[in-house]
Amino acid sequence: MGKYVIKGGNKLNGEIIVGGAKNSVLPIIASTVLNKGITILKNVPMLLDTMVAIDILRHLGATIDIGKNTLVINTKTIYKTCVDEELSNKMRSSVIFLGSLLSRFREGTIYLPGGCNLGSRPIDFHLNAFEKMNMKVDYPKDYNCIKIDAKNSKPTDITLPLASVGATQNIILASVLTKGTTVIKNSAKEPEIVDLVSFLREMGACIDGEGTDTIKVTGVEHLKNVVEYTIMPDRIEAGTFLFMGALCGGDIKVNNICSMHLQSTLYILEKMGVDLLVNNNEIHLKSSKRLNPVEYVETNPYPNFPTDLQPQLVTSLLLSRGTSVVKENMFEARNIYINELVKLGANVDGDNKTFIVTGVDGLHGTKLFAKDLRGGASLIQAGLVACGETIVENAKYIKRGYEKIDKKLSLLGADIKYVKS
Ligand code: EPU
């Protein structure tokens, strides 16, 4: 288990290139199960979670060649319909393999998915939707394992209780090869859903309404056997670097992004007093003074402010000129990084959902423990401005979602090293 060692105090200056989106590539890798052929994926972020998705495919029987940010996946040879228990437990997105298996093989088995510890993360919306599609959902081993028979699956109208990203993806995938039209109401509108649908359309699927709250999937009989697709840029990685730049001060250009996906973040950064020059594919940020506090920000589904940037926003406010209130609405345990920030001298109060952040004059480095991906990234961010040395243990959480974060920050002038232990 490695760690990051950071010496704080350097301003960030220069250009960085954002990689492909983690939350796009994972469902897209899962959806390659649908066709019986070759998929070439480009701009693939080489993350720990990407490797788990690759291992799941291999375990199902696929062959995969890994190049530099490129995957060549052959799913013709898939013969298993059960996602391995250990791999299911490693990552939340393992559940998305179900939709593809149900579409192609009319059956699928999964063990309860793991992922970052963000509180209880049920999959009831996914399973209720499958049942509504006339599939038989069994829980043979005390709910640890879920076995689904989709031999008699039928299209239907499904209204999601919450606009869940994962449930929307799973229902789309389960419907791609199901004869008739499945309608998903209150579907998630995240850009990662739009990217998945663009990929599926490239594969030959018939889908309408992505990016709105009603998606219609009309089942097709066959999909193309060769597909090539480039994963969209990671809006959360981009936002993480922008919040880091805002906090550290300096002048950075964040390249290879889609600024449209970052509107709610840019709105808040402007209120915090940074200078922004925004083009379609790059954002230039200059931050030269102590940041303004923000009165109130809450996380909500896209296009609102994303939960995946909440810890980075809170951390940006640690040295601000006043008091801000940030509320987390999506995940109950997305506060587990706060106690670590307090060890640096941060002033953050509130309960597990509402964070009252009062800017202090400085932070002092110490040893911290990452406990989840985004919270972990925010500990690195705080270390960049803390006096002296900050050690962020449990780098494995951060490596789940950020490719070479230490190298990218070093290019901007930060003093950060990854140390294997
Ligand atoms: N929910 C249920 N039942 C379900 C599904 C979801 O109660 O069956 C609840 C969740 O507990 C949560 C809310 O609905 O409170 C929204 O969850 P959603 O299903 O939208 O989240 P997800 O699909 O599990 C994806 C991303 C998360 C991101 C959320 C929200 C991936 C692999 N993960 O998770 O990303 O926070 O959408 O945008 O796409 C991250 O990258 O750090 C991360 C956690």
TL;DR of this structure?
With 421 residues, the chain is of the alpha+beta class.
What does this structure look like?
With 421 residues, this protein is of the alpha+beta class. It contains 14 helices and 23 strands. The strands form 6 sheets. It has a 4-stranded mixed sheet. The chain has a 4-stranded mixed sheet with strand order 2-14-16-15. Strand 11 and strand 12 form a beta hairpin. Helix 1 runs parallel beside helix 2 and helix 1 runs parallel beside helix 7. The longest helix is centred in the middle third of the chain and has 14 residues. It is elongated and about 65 Å long. The mean pLDDT is 95. Bound molecules: uridine-diphosphate-2(N-acetylglucosaminyl) butyric acid.
Describe the strand arrangement of the main beta sheet, using strand numbers.
Answer: 21-22-1-23
Secondary structure category? alpha+beta
The stretches of 5 or more residues where confidence is low (pLDDT under 50) are none
**Computed CA radius of gyration, to the nearest angstrom:** 21 Å
Principal-axis shape: elongated
Beta-strand percent range: 15-25%
* Residue-averaged pLDDT: 95
Counting H and I runs of at least 4 residues, what is the number of helices?
Answer: 14
Residue share in helix: 25-40%
Let me know the largest β-sheet.
4 strands, mixed
End-to-end separation = 6 Å
**DSSP summary, beta strand count:** 23
Which ligands occur here? uridine-diphosphate-2(N-acetylglucosaminyl) butyric acid
